[in-house]
Design goal:
single chain
Length: 82
């Protein structure tokens, strides 16, 4: 039985360090990943949940804090009558 394999974009193989060569597939025994370059395979644990990396996209957008410094406003000098 042939399983549908999906490539993991940007993933690096832990053995050969080639990028975009890892694919993932599931079968009756669990979820596996495999490198198409070197043949590395391993079974992914169903118990551990992958941690999402913090990026600017998935962070809560809070307004910037109010500054402690008050800006000065400069006005032009009035022109002297000649």
């Amino acid at each position: 039985m042939h399983q549908k394999r999906r490539f993991i974009a940007g993933a690096v193989c832990p053995r050969c360090a080639q990028m975009d060569r890892l694919c993932i597939f599931s079968d009756a025994h669990g979820t596996h990943r495999e490198c198409i370059s070197c043949g590395f395979t391993d079974k992914l644990s169903d118990l551990e949940t992958p941690v999402e990396l913090a990026t600017r996209v998935n962070q809560v957008n809070e307004p910037p804090p109010e500054p402690d410094v008050v800006p000065l406003k400069f006005y032009p000098r009035p022109k002297k009558p000649s």
